[in-house]
Amino acid sequence: MRKFKALLVLLLTLGLAVLLSTVALAANTTSGTCGENVTWTLDMNTGVLTISGEGWMEDYSGGVPWYSQRESITAVVIENGVTSIGDYAFDRCSNLTSVTISNSVTSIGDSAFWGCSSLTGVTLPGSVTSIGSSAFYYCSSLTSITIPSSVTSIEDAAFASCGSLTEIKVSEHNTIYCSTDGILFAKNMTELIYYPAGKTEAFYAIPDGVSIIGDYAFFSCDSLTNVTIPSGVTYIGYAAFAYCHYLESMTIPDSVTYIGERVFGWCSCLTEILVSTENMVYGSVDGVLFNKNETELICYPAGKGTSYAIPNSVITIGNWAFEGRTNLTSITIPNSVTSIGKYAFWGCNGLTSVTIPASVTSIDDWAFIDCKNLTSITLLNAITSIGWGAFSGCTSLTDVYYSGSEAEWNEIEISSNNDYLISATIHYNSTGPEDADTSGGSSSGTDAATPGDLNGDGEVNASDLTILARHVGKVETME
């Protein structure tokens, strides 16, 4: 009897231990809804996130239900019945290494796998018809991907900044897309859609017959030093060569009639942009890209000299014109200029001062964002408006020399997110530091600004990133 009791106690103890273990494991599982009839379950013990149910998955712009636990996710399973992967669904799941997508999924949303830097491969089922904008942006470990025959739509920057991606394969049965040497083209080879950023060749000649270089086509291709554009190309898309840090020179043929914004943004070794003299839309002066009649400065190469005087013919400094020109220390803006475009001097960290002439009446949104070493600006009293975030991130800005009175300054329409400008000392009736001491007075702001706080809540968080993304309108590099 005594042995029986001991055995019974042992069995009860073991049973209780198993029960407690099961309860503990169950307690480490979280779940919820992510669509009208779609649910999610995250097992924190295994790191597996399972999406199940019927129909579409919710689209997000940030703040997915599992966002705070995203770094714990190592595998995602999309079960049969789910028809879509929502926008930003697995955004920045940096430890995600495995994705299983069922044959019921037809669409992969915008930025669905944005920043999944540990993901080395993914198999797209034959049910997928569309791949959204930036769907696999900055999947830096992704080495290869195959586009099935079912895909009819691949949006901008779907595979941009995938630094390990060496080839994009396409099913020979696909009627919209094809691949040559691992490079993604339209089926008829008239559009070059994407050149994988992980390819190692230094030189590439775009094939004859191509007429369109797509948006983000060569984005962040750091191995390239030279790309030949054939005559016959008419369109060069948005940010087509942006962040090609080692690109040295570029020649635009006579056939080109459209060049998108940011086309050579942050190309730090680019010293010249040459344009065929037969081109009827664009021109080049001393390696700088202009429109044909030289009234708009479109792009100043990031690898050029440290100082530049804009020609007197220029009326418009284009959007993004000096973006990422970190070695630029001096800029002279002539009285002919009337407008300064969006992001015109973004990230020009070499600039310490700038004078805006009287001809300029407005400064566009984000014009001098992140000019971190800019300490002073001189504004003449013709200015009537300063755009949203025009001086955001100008953390060293301490002095503004303004030729008008305090009353005139107060009439200027200064948009939000210009805290560093507002907090600077304003020297009224002054045309520069040399006469500041004898000017008609000054005032200084009292509210300290928080760098990166775009919504003014005193914190830097995901909301600020969302605001920035909406105003940029395109994805940026993770650098």
**Strand percentage:** 25-35%
User: How far apart are the first and last residues' alpha carbons, in Å?
Assistant: 73 Å
Mean pLDDT: 90
Instruction: Please list the strands of the largest sheet in the order they lie side by side.
Output: 22-23-24-26-28-30-32-34
Q: Percent of residues in helical segments?
A: 10-25%
Shape: globular
Rg from Cα:
27 Å
Largest sheet: 8 strands, mixed
Number of strands: 36
Tag the structure with descriptive keywords:
479 residues; mainly beta; 8-stranded mixed beta sheet; 6-stranded mixed beta sheet; globular; disordered C terminus
Describe, in short, the structure shown:
This protein is mainly β.
Task: Break the fold down into its secondary structure elements and pairings.
Elements: H1 2-27, E1 29-35, E2 38-43, E3 48-53, E4 75-78, E5 84-85, E6 98-101, E7 107-108, E8 130-131, E9 144-147, E10 153-154, E11 167-170, E12 177-180, E13 183-186, E14 191-194, E15 203-205, E16 212-213, E17 226-228, E18 235-236, E19 249-252, E20 258-259, E21 272-275, E22 282-285, E23 288-291, E24 296-299, E25 307-309, E26 316-317, E27 330-332, E28 339-340, E29 353-356, E30 362-363, E31 376-379, E32 385-386, E33 399-402, H2 406-411, E34 413-414, H3 419-423, E35 425-427, E36 442-444, H4 462-472
Parallel strand pairs: 3-4, 4-6, 5-7, 7-8, 8-10, 9-11, 14-16, 15-17, 16-18, 18-20, 19-21, 24-26, 25-27, 26-28, 28-30, 29-31, 30-32, 31-33, 32-34, 33-35
Antiparallel strand pairs: 1-2, 2-3, 12-13, 13-14, 22-23, 23-24, 35-36
